[in-house]
Amino acid sequence: xxxxxxxxxxxxxxxxxxxxxxxxxxxxxxxxxxxxxxxxxxxxxxxxxxxxxxxxxxxxxxxxxxxxxxxxxxxxxxxxxxxxxxxxxxxxxxxxxxxxxxxxxxxxxxxxxxxxxxxxxxxxxxxxxxxxxxxxxxxxxxxxxxxxxxxxxxxxxxxxxxxxxxxxxxxxxxxxxxxxxxxxxxxxxxxxxxxxxxxxxxxxxxxxxxxxxxxxxxxxxxxxxxxxxxxxxxxxxxxxxxxxxxxxxxxxxxxxxxxxxxxxxxxxxxxxxxxxxxxxxxxxxxxxxxxxxxxxxxxxx
Length: 301
Fold this sequence. Notes:
The chain contains 13 helices and five strands. By secondary structure, the protein is α/β, with parallel strands linked by helices. The chain has two domains: 99 residues, Arc Repressor Mutant, subunit A; 160 residues, Glucose-6-phosphate isomerase like protein, domain 1 (Rossmann fold, 3-Layer(aba) Sandwich), CATH 3.40.50.10490. Strands 2-1-3-4-5 form a five-stranded parallel beta sheet, with helices on both faces. Helix 1 packs across helix 4 and helix 9 runs parallel beside helix 10. The termini are far apart.
């Protein structure tokens, strides 16, 4: 994501009070109303809703990139919502954002930001709370059932956003599940998709701007009768459309980069559910893995 340079946290303030749990009263109030929007416009609204600081200070082209639309779609979205254009809507969003911070900040218990690391940790704590409220427990149960009964689990992810899939694939295989991680695309991805059949699962972790190859992969997997589970911060994307189960997570990070913390936490949660689902079968597999570690002399002690 392009760096937003016209905003910085106030010294001595808890920078992330702007992110609440998105419960009954969203940070943006009723600015988005109940207006009927196209799918592209819904992506714009979702991107803004889940990224308060970004919505308040990002440039038009940055908003368009974030929602995987063109700039004119962002402008039309603003006009559909009753504003003259993006600057008009953003002025309202920024005003709501600042009001939300001042209203919901607990000044009696304000935390002094000690460092950028503390800033990041505080921000991710809010992201985790948002994810906890966004994700439907029944969807989690369905995901675990699908994963536990899968013939194969192919986990896709790229760049820093590959972390959830990488962690999931490794630990699932440690527990004895037929999981593997693939970050290559192009001909390598095509070869994998060519083997997908009913009973297979494609697990995709993807944040920020949608990748065309992953959208196509989800579509092809669905046509092959394989199940598609997606961990994403954009539930109105084409990728989500081709997914059987979608687990939404916020990804707003501190300053330049998106955060994959909530997505990784979701991956760990799925693993915990899978271990509990097949605990009797998994226990001896874990014992065997420990014996293999010893046989290979992996650890110093």
